Amino acid sequence: METMDWSNLGFGYNKTDYNVRCYYRNGKWGEIEVSSEETIPMHMAATCLHYGQEAFEGLKAYRCPDGKVRVFRSDENAARLQSTCRGILMPELPTERFNEMVDKVVRLNERFIPPYETGATLYIRPLFIGISAQVGVHPATEYLFMIFVTPVGPYFKGGFSCNDYVIIREFDRSAPLGTGIYKVGGNYAASLRANKMAHDLGYACEFYLDAKEKKYMDECGAANFFGIKNNTYVTPKSTSILPSITNKSLMQLAEDLGLKVERRQIPEDELETFEEAGACGTAAVISPIGKIDDLELKKSFQISKNGKPGPISEKLYNKLRGIQYGTEPDVHGWTRVVIDN
Ligand code: PLP
Ligand code: COI
Q1: Rounded to the nearest whole angstrom, what is the distance from the C-alpha of residue 328 to the centroid of ligand 1?
Q2: Which one-letter DSSP state was computed for residue 134?
Q3: Is the pTM of this model over 0.90?
Q4: Ligand 1: which residue has its CA nearest to atom 2?
Q5: Ligand 1, atom 1, residue with closest C-alpha
C-alpha cells in the first residue's frame, strides 16, 4: 500500500481496509456496521441475484491542497438512490444516513485517499441489494445497503484529453420507459456487448441513440453527453438516460460562465454543428470528444479540429475540479468537508 503508484492508477478495484454496512429488516434500518470483509454472505434465492433488485451509486472524495478531504454533492447521490429505490421497489435510505455512512467509510480509509498532486481520487461505491429469498417475482423483505471505497485514476484514457466514440445501433442500453433513469445493474449488463464492440474497434466508449426512433443522442455507457456551440451548452433531454450529477453541475457552471443552457433532444446530425463536445460523469469527469463515428451510416462527426479539448470545456473542467478540490469558491455549497486536517 505504501508503494501504491497513485499517478498511474487506472479505474479499478483496489482493496481498502473497511466497508460500512446497514441492514433493513422488519421494516426498519439497523445500526451502521463496520466490516473488513470483502465478501457478502447471501441467500442463493436473494432477489438481487435473480430479479435484479440492485442499485448502486458513484461519487468521489478529494484530497485537497488545503489538507482537507471533500466529497462532492453527496445529497444528490442520496436523492438519486432514493429515486432508483422507488423505481425498483426497494425501501428508501434517508439522506442523512447515506451521508453519515459516506463520511464514515472515507474516514476509516483515509490512508487510501490519493495525494492531491497525483490526480487520483477515492471512488465511493454505495451498493444496495435485496437479500431475502423469493422465487416468485416480488420485492425482497430484507435489504443490505453498503459502501466500499477504492482509489482510482481516470476512467477514460489520458484524463482530460480527446477520445473517440462510436454510435452502436445494434443494442439499446435501456427502453424509453425502462430503467435507464435509475442506476441499476441491469442497465450496465445491457451495455456490455456494445461496450466490448466499441473497445474492440479501438474507441473509448459506445454511444447510444434513443431506443424508439434511433434518431437522437442519448448517452454513453457510463457518462452523459454535452455539446457546445454559439456560446450554448446543449445536453440531451431523454427518458432513458441517467440524470448525471456532473452534468447537472456543469449546466449550472455553464450558466455561471454566461453560456445559454439547453436541455432538449439532439438529433444525431446536429453533431456536425458542435464546436466542442464531451462525455461527463463522476468517473469520466469531463472527457472531451475527438470524434463520434456512426459506422452503420458511414458517418464520422469530427468534433475537435485540432485533437485538443475546446476552450469552454477546459473552463468548465477547471471550474468543476476547482470546486471539488477547494481551490475555487464553492458558491453553490456543493462540497462537504469530511476530514478537516
Ligand atoms: N450515465 C451513466 C450511464 C452513468 O453510469 C453515469 C455514472 O454515474 C453517468 C451518466 C454520470 O452520472 P454522475 O455525473 O452522477 O456520475
Ligand atoms: C460513475 O461515473 O460513477 C459511474 O458509475 C460510471 C461507471 C463506473 C459505472
Answers
A1: 23
A2: -
A3: yes
A4: 222
A5: 223
Side-chain-side CA neighbours of residue 100 (13 Å): 12
Determine the distance separating the centroid of ligand 1 and the alpha carbon of 286, expressed in angstroms. Answer: 11
Domain ranges across the chain: 6-152, 163-324
- Calculate how far, in angstroms, residue 285's C-alpha sits from the geometric centre of ligand 1: 10
Q: Which amino acid, one-letter code, is at 236?
A: P
Ligand 1 pocket check: which of 168, 192, 224 to mutate, most ligand atoms within 8 Å of Cβ?
224
Q: Give phi and psi for 90, each to the nearest 5.
A: -115, 155
CATH of domain 163-324: 3.20.10.10
pLDDT digits (tens, 9 = 90+) for 5-60: 998 999 999 999 999 999 999 999 999 999 999 999 999 999 999 999 999 999 99
245-265 confidence digits (pLDDT tens): 999 999 999 999 999 999 999
Question: Phi-psi region for residue 236, left (φ > 0), alpha (ψ -120 to 50) or beta?
Answer: beta
Q: State the pairing for strand pair 69-72/121-130.
A: unpaired
Cell of 177: 420507459
CATH class of residue range 6-152: alpha beta
Residue nearest to atom 11 of ligand 1 (CA): 281
